[in-house]
């Protein structure tokens, strides 16, 4: 994902043309989807979306829950065995509920001991996952929002696309199926452009309206940006209707949530670089802006 104040976009920047072809969109189909859950109500809201995408792409849905070390800092030591037994029963009930919910699609469920990031990384690599779906708690005033405490790390280190579902999202599977408006925001950096084929593919599969957004600095030429946005959609791609292209002055962290609200977007698509060096973030969203966009847009 990309963000304000970065080189590569703005009044003096010339957006790089992306020669996107229909074959690029075709390659962005999802055949192996991972749904990561901490068994919370926030994670539960994301499951219908994972299910519906798996159904539309005829994909296998992998469900993973990472079991961390048992810690009860405020409970007497004598009660720990009882608390562990309660947790085990809770996980067993949750697994049985997941089996019932997933019966309509090919699936695998795995409860694995380990740290969340380590477990997800292992599964993504072993199963060649093409999409990771997670639920966000949508808290404000803090920087930790996804699965309790690992939001930024998941976005920066995941080697596949990540779909987050916020607490205000519609929860039943029938409504989740109706993604009628998908907003794709780009600053024309390589990372954000890499997300364009996914946005087009999702719009095609859901027969949704595609809205393309670029935020320009004061003095930028909106007409150039709109033409460049139009060029991102391959000629002849089977979309339900003509995409809407929007170029507005302002910062992505502010304008993207506003655009989602104004256009009634059901899904926001952004591109982010995978973090290799935590001290170097060229051409991507600042951490604070990334968090703001996710919390305010979900």
Our count of helices gives: 11
Q: Count the beta strands.
A: 9
Looking across the biggest beta sheet, what order are the strands in?
3-2-1-4-5
What is the CA–CA distance across the termini? 16 Å
What structural class results from the helix and strand content? alpha/beta
Assign an overall shape: elongated
Low-pLDDT stretches are 1-17, 139-148, 276-288
Mean pLDDT over the residues: 77
For the biggest sheet, the summary is: 5 strands, parallel
Roughly what fraction of the amino acids lie in strands?
Answer: 15-25%
In N-to-C order, the SSE pattern is HEHEHEHEHEHEHHEHEHEH
Q: How helix-rich are the residues, as a percent range?
A: 25-40%
Radius of gyration: 20 Å
